[in-house]
Amino acid sequence: MKFTAQQIAGILEGDVVGNPDVEVSKLSKIEEGFEGSLTFLANPKYTNYIYTTNASVTIVNKSFVAENEIKTTLIKVEDAYEAFSKLLEYYNQVKNNKEGIESPVYISDSARYGESIYLGAFAYIGENVVIGDHVKIFPNAYIGDNVTIDDNTSVFSGAKIYSETIIGKNCVIHSGAIIGADGFGFAPNGNGVYKKVPQIGNVILEDFVDVGAATTIDRATLGSTIIRKGVKLDNQIQIAHNVEIGKNTVIAAQTGIAGSTKIGENCQIGGQVGIVGHITIGNNVKIQAQSGIGRHVKDNEVLQGSPAIPYGDYNKSYVHFKNLPTIVKNINDLEKNKWE
Fold this sequence. Notes:
Strand order of the largest sheet: 8-11-14-17-20-25-28-31-34-37-39-40
Strand content: 25-35%
Number of domains: 2
CATH architecture of the largest domain: 3 Solenoid
Number of helices: 4
Number of strands: 40
CATH topology of the largest domain: UDP N-Acetylglucosamine Acyltransferase, domain 1
Largest sheet: 12 strands, mixed
Structural class: alpha/beta
Radius of gyration: 26 Å
CATH class of the largest domain: Mainly Beta
């Protein structure tokens, strides 16, 4: 698919400097640009590459002024990075702009669906499912009984949505994600054998939630596991039963959150973080990668370590930890000299 510089400028509300009819069909890094590709310049440290790049079109800030001759056509915008992101989003929309029902698929007679949907081959749509307008369900996806999926949501190949799950508008569920599997609930009997506790709740995803590939979100024992509006989940995250994650919180890969923990709004949680169950984490909290959270966390805290401590304290402690062999040797020398 090819676009001219003028067409791209129209999408981005930018101004063309150079040949408005030059065509591009691929994207590239500015230092690896080639003829027929589109790139961008946002970070000043890459400015020298704009004079050598072979990219046909480069998106730049309006403040950019060329100090040497350039051969790439420029599209000047207010914010080059934001504009390039917008273009990527537009490209994805065009690429995934599928409609229609492929064959074979299974659609229950009791299921209802809206306009301009896409159902890929071998998708399964269970009893009493409700699917909104412009929803895309890619091949081999499973949608269980009584699931609701609202407008403009995409469920990619191989995702599994268990029964009773409610998914809002403009959500993205990536391949291999499993939403609504049983929470980890077992109770020991008198003989030391663990008996399963039925998990009869559900999962609710509000609008604009992204769920990464192979991420799992367990249904509640009772009530709901809730992922609030605008939450972004990376790949391979485990969210246990009855967890609640507040609006616009982002969580990186391989984080595990145990049952009934409540996480506030606008939090940033790094990769491989472990969070125990039945605690509350406040709003605007930042947790560094590989931290272990075993206590309640107040608003605006920044934590690192396992068990986690305030970020500044962790860095100060780590300086001493790196020097621990020297410190121990000095103490031993002092003790030795004391008795000589």
